[in-house]
Amino acid sequence: MEDTLKTYVVERPLAGAGRLSARDLQGLSAKSNAVIRDLGPDVQWVQSYVTGDKIYCVYRAKGPDLIREHARCGGFPVEAINQVVSMIDPTSAA
After folding, report:
1. Could you tell me the pLDDT band of residue 2, with boundaries at 50, 70 and 90?
2. pLDDT at residue 11 is higher than 90
3. Are the beta carbons of 81 and 67 closer than 8 angstroms?
4. Which residue has the higher pLDDT, 3 or 64?
5. What gap in Å lies between CA 1 and CA 48, rounded to an integer?
6. Closest CA to 84 of 67, 93, 31, 14
7. Alpha-helical segments (H) within the chain
8. Which residues contact 13 (CB under 8 A, 6 or more apart)?
9. Max Cα–Cα distance, the chain, nearest Å
10. Considering the chain, what percentage of its residues have pLDDT values greater than 90?
């Protein structure tokens, strides 16, 4: 297995995610951080985007199995894990 961390986007279905309070989101973040501490440096949570009924999370990890283990340990739903193969932004047009 390659030793470098890859970037993944994780799709988590969560009904009413967009209506979660700041305290609820803080609790989810704290749980995620605790699980990641236990799993070690081969998985890193970068950030998440909360929408109406889903949360999209960006992770750096050696592989998707570590992300699945994070979800299992934390009790977080996972609908899809997709490896990022390239990134573009408005400056990509130049």
Report:
1. low
2. yes
3. yes
4. 64
5. 27
6. 67
7. 22-39, 64-74
8. 53, 54, 77, 79
9. 43
10. 97
The Cα 90–Cα 60 span in angstroms is 23
Q: Are 9 and 48 in contact (CB under 8 A)?
A: no
Overall pTM > 0.85 = yes
Q: CA-CA distance, 60 to 81, in Å (whole number)?
A: 12
Radius of gyration of the chain (CA): 14
In the three-class reduction of DSSP (H, G, I as helix; E, B as strand; rest coil), residue 44 is classed as strand
Cα-Cα end-to-end distance for the chain: 36
Give the phi and the psi of residue 2 in degrees, each rounded to 5.
Answer: -65, 145
Q: Are 11 and 79 in contact (CB under 8 A)?
A: yes
